[in-house]
Amino acid sequence: MSMFLDTAKIKVKAGNGGDGMVAFRREKYVPNGGPWGGDGGRGGNVVFVVDEGLRTLMDFRYNRHFKAQSGEKGMTKGMHGRGAEDLIVRVPQGTTVRDAETGKVITDLIENGQEFIVAHGGRGGRGNIRFATPKNPAPEISENGEPGQERELQLELKILADVGLVGFPSVGKSTLLSVITSAKPKIGAYHFTTIVPNLGMVRTQSGESFAVADLPGLIEGASQGVGLGTQFLRHIERTRVILHIIDMSASEGRDPYEDYLAINKELESYNLRLMERPQIIVANKMDMPESQENLEEFKKKLAANYDESEELPPIFPISGLTKQGLAPLLDATAELLDKTPEFPIYDESEMEEEAYYGFDEEEKPFEISRDDDATWVLSGEKLMKLFNMTNFDRDESVMKFARQLRGMGVDEALRARGAKDGDLVRIGKFEFEFVD
């Protein structure tokens, strides 16, 4: 079984904020001490950190739930609870993080040591020392901690490489990688010898260096899931230059030019933007009989299908087996990399908008629906946040929550929907009677 894993779905839960405390100062010689309950501590964030030592998402195969610690509760003497430490989750370079529900890209982690908070911890609830006023100098009010953010994430690893080797199975991609780098890919005289991407570093004679990825062989229909292409085409997206390896000996009875067209069609079908990347055509197996004749025929067909205004992709005849022609190929690849910029792999429509914590006039603070048992049901992100942070063990906190609902317009909205005295209203699992 392959130990390479490049996709994973996980759940993360940031820590809840600590509850605020209701306490009063009771000391000898200090009459009418007043409130003394402190605030709760902040809940821990869930933070992704890029670790260049990781190569796959295998760590997420069996551990799919990540939960940060909650903050400590507030204490007497006005002391705040301790904030929880962030939960650090290490991921490999090239990891894309998506929201599993919306499919939006949350972040793209490509630099070693890069950090990103994928789930924010809740703030601590306020203690009663924070609610003292001249009108109410001894409040018995405190807040529960804010719930930590909880979300399901889809992780997708797209390996970081400057150059990608593409081509049909058995055209010599793994052999080429083994002779131009120190990588030791599996090499065999059968299709799909390579079943996971292999990565190696190239150093040219002039001192230039770049990373090369050998991807599992593509076949027709790869972009629709045929063969291994659908699993590994994603890894070509980060490359800046594509080396298109073609078996010029036609040892398997296929026409080299038809191979060239078929692979480009699969790249285009998977992601049209892959065709923006410059290609170098690598005519491999030139040590075999009839390779030279096939190369001349290939050049004629290629020229016939390009306009005079278009520049033909460069062609380098090589032999991975005898190592002939490798130096000019590597020098040309390094030169092309120098003048090729990075390609953004996500557009704005795919990216999740940054969180906005201000007031949005269009956003409804609550929604009203009705259950089959005729109970009115209140929901909504803002309303549920207030509900979760209300300490229902204290009458003053409950009254404060009732005032907040009235201020949000819940009472008026219920009347407009036809609510009458004595009707049941439900928020989560909490039920109360509506009083007109």
What does this structure look like?
The protein is of the alpha/beta class. It folds into three domains: 151 residues, Spo0b-associated Gtp-binding Protein, Chain: A (Distorted Sandwich), CATH 2.70.210; 177 residues, 3-Layer(aba) Sandwich (Rossmann fold), CATH 3.40.50.300; 68 residues, 2-Layer Sandwich (GMP Synthetase, Chain A, domain 3), CATH 3.30.300.350. 19% of the residues lie in helices and 21% in strands. The protein contains eight helices and 18 strands. The strands form four sheets. A six-stranded mixed β-sheet has the order 10-11-9-12-13-14, with helices on both faces. A five-stranded mixed β-sheet has the order 3-1-8-5-6, with no helix packed on it. Strands 15-16-17-18 form a four-stranded mixed β-sheet. The longest helix is centred in the middle third of the chain and has 15 residues. The chain is elongated, with a radius of gyration of 31 Å. About 3% of the residues have low confidence. It is found in: Cytoplasm. It is an enzyme of class 3 (hydrolase). GO terms for molecular function: GTP binding; GTPase activity; magnesium ion binding. It holds the Pfam family GTP1_OBG. Keywords: Cytoplasm, GTP-binding, Hydrolase, Magnesium, Metal-binding, Nucleotide-binding.
Question: How is the secondary structure organized here?
Answer:
Layout: E1 7-13, E2 46-50, E3 65-67, E4 87-91, E5 95-99, E6 105-109, E7 115-119, E8 150-157, E9 163-166, H1 173-180, E10 198-203, E11 209-214, H2 229-232, E12 241-247, H3 256-270, E13 279-284, H4 291-304, E14 315-317, H5 326-338, E15 367-370, E16 376-379, H6 381-388, H7 395-408, H8 410-416, E17 424-427, E18 430-433
Parallel strand pairs: 1-3, 2-4, 9-11, 9-12, 12-13, 13-14, 16-17
Antiparallel strand pairs: 1-8, 2-7, 5-6, 5-8, 10-11, 15-16, 17-18
